[in-house]
Amino acid sequence: MQQVKKTTGKTPDDLKNAPTLPIELEHAWEAFNLLTEFSYTEIFNFMAVTKRDLETWEVEAIVKLAKYREVTPTWPLK
User: Fold this and answer.
1) Among 8, 25, 35, 74, which one has the highest count of C-beta atoms within 10 angstroms of its own C-beta?
2) More confident residue, 3 or 52
């Protein structure tokens, strides 16, 4: 959708209405996007190497969310 905005100069309605991520969750989302493997061992090693501490619930959320990483969403989302 960002490409549509760049090409047409208009923001699509889906992008305008997209949810925003609370600032408190940005570090967990960034960790999710930097990781390539989602085992607890890999996440632990990531935290050790990057000196980023994640809460237990954040680690669990990353592991659960990883199941959907390669899934193409169907629109509209339900």
Assistant:
1) 35
2) 52
